[in-house]
Amino acid sequence: MKYSHLLLLVMGIAAAGSAGAGGPPDMNLRAVSAESPRYYQRREDGWFWYRDPRAPAPAAEAPPAPARADPPAPADPREMIQTQRDRLETLLAAAVLQPTARNVEAYMRANAELMQQSSDFADQWQRVLWNSPELDRNLVSPTGQAALLRAEVETEQQDRILTVAAQEYGLVFFFRGSCPYCHQFAPVLKNFTRRYGFSLIDVSLDGGTLPEFPTPRKNFLAASAMQAEEKGVPAVYVINPRTRQIVPAAFGSMGFTELAQRIVYAIQSAAQPRDSVASFEGEVQ
Q1: CB burial string 120-131: b at 16+ within 10 A, e below
Q2: What is the distance between the alpha carbons of residues 238 and 241, in angstroms, rounded to a whole number?
Q3: pLDDT over 50 (residue 281)
Q4: How far apart are CA 178 and CA 153, in angstroms?
Q5: Closest CA to 206 of 222, 230, 187, 229
Q6: Is residue 37 a part of any domain in this protein?
C-alpha cells in the first residue's frame, strides 16, 4: 500500500516536470542536440575537442571612388584664331569651286560669325577707352576735327610766344647768293619777320645777294666760322642782343609752320641757363 502511494508521487512529479519544460522531453532533447551537440555526441573528436571560433565574414569593400578627371587645358587663343581662319578659307574655297546654295550659305554664316566677333571686340575697345582715357591716343595726337582744333590752339599759343619774344630776341640769317635753297627760303623768312616783328640781320657769306635781302652785310669772320663748323646754308640763328648769345634755330629750306616751331624751340633753349645751350659765339658786324 505504501509502495503504491510512493509510485504515484514519483509519477506526479515526473508529469509536472514535463509540463514545466514546455513540451515533451524527447522534443526538448532533440532541440538542444540540433543547436549544439553534446560531448558524448561528438566522440570522433576525441580529446582534441576545442575549435577556434569561425572568423567573421569580411565586410564587402566599398567600390573605389571614380578618379576625378582633370579639367581640360585651355585652348591657345592663337590656335583658335588660326582654326577660325582656316575654316573660313576652306568654306570660301568650297563655295568658289562648287557654288551650290549649301556651300555659299555655309560660308556666309561663318563669315557673319567672324564679323560679329570683330564688332564685339570693337565695341568693347571703345568702352575701355571711355573708362580709361589715358589709353586714348587721340587725346595725345588728335586726328580729324580734334586735330584741327588742337592745331588752332597751338598756333594761337605759338603766335603769342613769338610776338612777345620778338621784343627781346632778333634773328641772324646766313646765306649765299649762289645757293638755290637760300633763294627758295628767303621769302618764307621775310614773311615770318614781318608777321611777328622780329628784327633781322642778313649776312652774305659769298658777297652775293637775294631779291628779298638786296643789301646784306658781308661778314667774312662769320663765314670762316660757319665753314669751320661745317654749317650749311640757309641758316637762321636766334640772338639775344642784351647778352649777345646766339642759338642755332634752323638749317636748310623749310615752310612757315616748321620755321615758327624751330624758332620757338630756339627761344626756349635760349631762356635756359647758358651752360645748357649750344650756341654759336660769332660777332656779327
Answers
A1: eeeeeeeeeeee
A2: 10
A3: no
A4: 39
A5: 222
A6: no
Q: Could you check whether the bond before residue 234 is cis, i.e. omega within 30 degrees of 0?
A: yes
258 and 194 in a common domain: yes
Q: Which of 73-87, 88-102, 169-183, 250-264 has the lowest mean pLDDT?
A: 73-87
pLDDT for residue 253: 92
The reply to whether 267 falls in a domain is yes
> How does the average pLDDT of the chain come out, rounded?
76
The DSSP-derived string for 27-48 is HHHHHHHHHS--GGG-GGGTT-
pLDDT band at residue 4 under the 50/70/90 scheme? low
Q: Where are the beta strands (DSSP E) in the chain?
A: 170-175, 200-204, 217-218, 235-240, 245-251
Range of the domain at 121: 79-128
Domain count, the chain: 2
Burial of 201 (0-12, 13-18, 19+ CB in 10 A): middle
Q: Do 197 and 271 fall within a single domain? A: yes
Percent with pLDDT over 90 in the chain: 36
